[in-house]
């Protein structure tokens, strides 16, 4: 709607071309002004619009609420009331926010109340109340509305309590005085109502106390808080302990405790811990502080030093044996004690080693004051060496008499306690002799034990007794020869002898070789070590003479000595001694030259002889005839064929003559024949000979030229050659007399001009065609050219008149010009003849021109040969356009750019227009807006236009959907109609976009329509509108009815049937479902119908009928009939039949099957009402058939039964073999086979059985058979094979590897190999070679066992091995790590042990030390055993001076008793003196001067001077001087002036010892 006068509006928009667009601020001001005017002017004509107002909203409450400062507070569950004050036209109020509510009234009112219940939690609960003047048909508030807000606060939390302690606790949370607890309370909600209670408390008790206070807010919410108060008013306790250290100092340790707050620190004076180390006589203070800050102290005094030496005693850790002896090292456990300064380092155990009586060990110990004690242990007796035992009477040789064995033992220390021995691994016996008389290889082991318990290593000896004769057998060489058979070679008979008694074979007949022909007997004899003998004989037959043989050939030779057929060779043979083994078969010879046939005949002794015929020539193959002729595929003249006859065996008899082939053709031939020397003939024909004597012919093919005789394009030349026989193989040509070219395919001539082409062909035989008349061709492929003479454009490029002169010129370099053509403005083509004038109208014109030559080549012209002619006599045009364009309704919904386009019909749009103005952008909503534009062309013509009206609406319309109402549950059973309502205030709704009514189809619980939109006439599209939550259920519920139980597989029930119904509805759900129905009584195909069902949407389904119910509750019955052939109540034969017949009640389910089992076995099932049970009469016994029937309803008959018995089985015979054979099936003693028989438990019984059989003769396998007969005459048998071998195998052992030294000891592993044999059952086990590597006395034993279990054991004793070095440790050297006083050093000795061959020697050498016999010495000890093995070790020991302490004037408290530390005058000279002695007390002199140690300042002291002041000249060196007169060492120490301390002075001696003494300076 326009609300300003039209001229003003036109002036506003038309000013755009001459000045800039308004600024955005100006536009906003303008829009605001327009809006105000629109409201004012619109109010003059439109009806009044009323709006309800919400003037205020407040909350109030009752119980459980309180108002503080005008704000309402409420606890959870309290009722609150919202009161809304509105204008008097309000008929509808909606409440949203903390709770929602809706009220409406048919008349306007000003006060509205709503009630709700306060929620849980804490915090503000706000609502918005919206007042509206009306309500729509859907019960919703509508019309112009306004709103008001209100809130209340939910407060369910009590106040917050805070405590304050006076005084405040320390960092550890403790107080050490009475403490006051004060409480404060705050509440962020309704505020504090009462409390805190109590407001304050005083705590005065020691320990931990919890104080609690409470408070309530104005809504009576209760809160409580607690605080822990910790008070400790008591001081901690502190105690002290003292421990004396090895250096003479004392460690004082304080222990602190506090029962209440606990210890925070426990410190010793001068230390960061609870312990401190001080000198004797010191005072130490300890301080304890608890966590509350209370403290206590403890003062400790440390006593003076210790002057008494400790006590020391030693005792062996293990007792000696009953004889008072030890067999190994003795460990001495030392016990030391000192009641004053204690033992800093307990003495370690010492070891008494070596052998002998009266052995002891010594050690020393220091107390805490440095005083020492040395003690010696009680004497002990040690014997480490086992006794040795000798043996007499044993031997490795065999004897046939009893053997007496004597044992003699000796021991070097404790004496022999006993001697033990065993015989053949039997029990251990004690004694020194015994006698053996039983036959065999006996092994004797023995050893002795001394009184110290040392046991000698077990030794082994052998005793051999044999009284059994040997055995003898023979073998032949070659091994393939069998006793008494014929051979053609010498035969050697070798006898093998064995001895079963163990003494071995003493003599065995040497091998005998038979070389003479005929039959010979050879006898051998075996003798064992005891003189027993046995004999064996063998038979040998020798034939060395070959048999005789002759050969004869059959067949006919020709005169040339050739056969033309196979030749047969036959043979005759004979032998006079061993006889011919067989006559050779005939041999057939086939083709070949110089053939021979030989056959060999062999006699029984293996001698062979051959005979045959040589020089047999057989040729059955015809000769080969070959032809040679020209190898060319084609020939142009006669062809000569050369024939050659060859034969691989007899050769050709002659050669055929050559032949000649004439004429022409593709398959000419020639024939010849030849024969070989044997008379075979061959004929051959060669074909495929080709002869071509004629040249080919060639023709050319080209397209027809134009009528002018010219070609205007390339000319394709095609050449075709032909030949009547060998075919064309090549075609050639030349162009314009040029080079000859091979023709392969059609070629083109495209160069402009006149051309001459010559051509010809060659055939496969080489014939060449003569070229014919040439081919002439004229070609022009270049188009002519045309130039423009007129028109010539004026300088301005425009013609101002319509008569335009036109003229052209054309030229061609080839065939010449045929014509020139032109068109004007794409019109009809015209032929140019002479210059002419064209009358052209205003505008731009195009003249196109071109020429064509006689070869029909046309000049290109479409884009190249054009002339533009411009003619202008008209004014320009101007057209306005809106962008975007208005829609079909004439509206835009965005800013509109109005632009003007100017045109000049003559001079063109871009070059002919001089000016085009007036473009403007319209941005305001409104209708009927216009814009003015102007245009000027080059000639000065002008034109003005007004563009409009332009209508703009940028506000999108609104749209809502209203669905039809459903049933009470909100459901529909059919399509739901949805109506769409749209609204737009400016351009109005575009009726074409009005959505049609929607129908919500389908089914579902949340269906909807949309989204849909609507547009106004300006094309503004509304937001998509949708309707959701539509519920449609069109489908009636589904009823399923079925029995609650399933019929069986035959479809029958055996009892009453309950039919149950289930209802389902996929959407609205079931409102009503029918109840169950019951069917009773027997009968087939019964049925029942249920009630209908209804869903929530109101759809109803008819009741369902369930039919086909078959009920049969009665069981069937069965009878049986047994049939079999019986004798004496027993069935006989292969089987018996039991016939079963079952029936069921008429009209019911009928018999389904009969079930039966035989003898309680697996139940069988037969379908139908009859069954024949076939009972196999297997064996003998009795059986039964159990049976019953089942009908199709599953009713089961009670079980019935029938029984029968039979006997078809013979007795079962079994055997026992006594004794039972071993796993290999062999026995080694008499074997008794006993047979037992048993008839089947239900059979006729056994009447007779075979007697036992005893096998006592050795056998490799004897079959023993037994039988038994029952009453029915059935016979049973059983067999067993008995294998008996009574003879034990033989075994011998031999040392096959190992080196024995002269001492009789082996120094490495020894290998013993065993050989085993057995003549009957064979060897099952024979020992592997035994490798003995254990040190000491060894014996290798092996047992051979045959398959019958007989075994023999052989032993190789007396194998002594020592591979180890003797044992020697530093503990075995008497001076190891010892410290000795010079003059009392023992001679270094060593003791070693060797567990096997024994120690031969143990020697010690010593090096090192000083010349005077003191210092550190190194020893080397070497032990060697009797086998030569040796062990070497090294160690050290020390030799020192006897030092009795420093001499006066110094009191040496370390070496003297009852003296105090000397105190000298500070600054005086102190003479430091001492003497060195040997063990006997003799004074000795050091090898090198003793070294003076730099004095070390000690702890402070205040003891007065108690020694004389000396003024002797002081020494400045670093060594003591030796006073030869006094035989003492002296150093005069010049002390410093500093006083009040102890000092430590000392000396380093050349024996490695350092001695100290303490003095004081004052």
From TrEMBL:
It comes from the Bacteria. InterPro entries: Ig-like_OmpL47-like. Residues 1-23, 129-148 are annotated as: Disordered. Keywords: Membrane, Transmembrane, Transmembrane helix. The chain crosses the membrane at residues 29-50. It comes from Cryobacterium shii. This is HYR domain-containing protein.
